[in-house]
Amino acid sequence: MMWWGPVVTLATFFGMEFMAWATHKYVMHGIMWYFHKDHHQVEPGFFEKNDVFFLIYAIPSWLCIMLGLMNQTYFPVWIGFGIAAYGLAYFLIHDVYIHRRFKWLRDIEHPYFYAIRRAHKMHHKHLGKEHGECFGMLLVPFRFYIDSRKQFKKQQNA
Fold first, then answer.
1. For the chain, is the Cβ count within 10 Å smaller at the N or the C terminus?
2. pTM of the entire structure?
3. What is the extent of the structural domain holding 80?
4. How many CB atoms neighbour CB 53 within 10 A?
């Protein structure tokens, strides 16, 4: 294993936050609103049309890993692992923790997790594709961290 492999994976993982932010703001709330709409306006059923975005990220990850291994070119493999790791984080934080699509986690009592949950709730207060805010998942506006720390301290002192 080359020393740079994990570095590429981590850089890809963190870069995916910005890719996801841009995709969420300009694609999901733009040309592909048809698929994202049911995520903001709840419809019956467990699956959402919005789940198609899993494939939009999973396919490049899979291709990078598969083609990189087939050609013994490992740089794309590490990129594929970074995309896959972000996908796993997205699933656990967004679908499991924030939206409770699976009842695996309760509230995580930490200001960071309060902040991301609050920012996501602010995002979902807008039912339409316009006037959105807080398009990221792991990095949210700093004001949410400040408010969450204050709330967290109040709860700890109560």
1. C
2. 0.89
3. 4-157
4. 20
